[in-house]
Amino acid sequence: MSTETSGKMLPARLPALLYHRVGPLADRSDASLSALPGKFERQVRWLVRRGYRGICPSDWHAWRKGEGSLPEKPVVLTFDDGYADLAVHALPVLARHGFGAAVFIVTSQIEGTNLWDQGAGRAAHRLMSAAEIRAWSARGIEFGSHTRTHRSLKGLPESELESEIAGSRRDLEAILDRPVRCFAYPYGDYDRAAVEWARREFDLAFSIEEGLNTRATDPWLMLRSQVIPDETRFDLFWRVHFGWSPLHHLRRKVGLRTRLREAMRLVLVRGS
Predict the structure, then answer these.
(1) How many folded domains does the chain comprise?
(2) DSSP string spanning 136-191?
């Protein structure tokens, strides 16, 4: 059986997994956005054993246009924000397994830190440098824009949308000396105007809505499933097969009910 899917064969389904940092936890790190290196490597090995091959967003775009083929079981791993830890703990793992992937860069903070998180008291983490971006691009990792400043794009005036979206593309192209084709909405926030700007500037744009991508998926609202650090391989199974994890949603629901019961108990105790 062929392991490639031609541009004319249907249906192809593409799970897209969302990560942020991959690295050891530091004081005040956001644990919900930080995958430990050993666990990340086990997840990649799990994908490899089950026949998945990591592709880049441009591979999917070419297949949609009938200009390329896909592996039988494609998956795209995406990393928002461009943390420098990726170059140590994540991208070398992908390179060993021949996986492509996409890293989305906040261009005003290249070689800076995650300023957008620090206002909430979270730890500062170094972001990738221009040299690291160029080096990993040469090794097959695709780099896309994540705006200039990591602002929510909802409700921004046209001039600010142009700066955040088109401006970030120009910034990154100046570093890479090649076209930048993909984009990710910060916080998953967008409105009609933001999507229209993404449509003008990029071939693909990624949301944080869950599900599997098919040829029918809007290319500027690509679906992604966020991998939560404390999840099991069963969650990963659901995410690549169905685009979401019912186990994660069940745990959240149970946790919410537990917190509500505890809050109600405290109210009753204080009112007695």
Answers:
(1) 1
(2) HHHTT-EEEE--SS----TT--HHHHIIIIIIHHHHHHHHHSS---EEE-GGG---
Residue 102 DSSP SS3: strand
Within a domain: residue 143?
yes
Tell me, what's the pLDDT at 10?
46
Mean pLDDT, residues 91-112: 98
What's the domain range around 76?
Answer: 4-230
- 31: which DSSP letter? G
Q: Would you put residue 85 in left (φ > 0), alpha (ψ -120 to 50) or beta?
A: alpha
Residue that is written with structure tokens 């004081």 in the block = 27
Give a yes or no: residue 270 inside a domain. no
Residue 258: what residue type? T
What pTM was computed for the model?
0.90
Q: Taking all residues of the chain, what is their mean pLDDT, rounded to a whole number?
A: 91
CB atoms within 10 A of CB 168: 25
Q: Are 124 and 30 in contact (CB under 8 A)?
A: no
pLDDT tens profile 3-47: 566 544 445 899 999 999 999 988 888 888 999 999 999 999 999
Over residues 236-257, the pLDDT tens digits come to 999 999 999 998 888 777 654 5
123 falls within a domain: yes
162 in a domain, yes or no? yes
- What CATH number did the domain enclosing 203 receive? 3.20.20.370
**Nearest alpha-carbon partner for 202 in 104, 130, 128:** 104
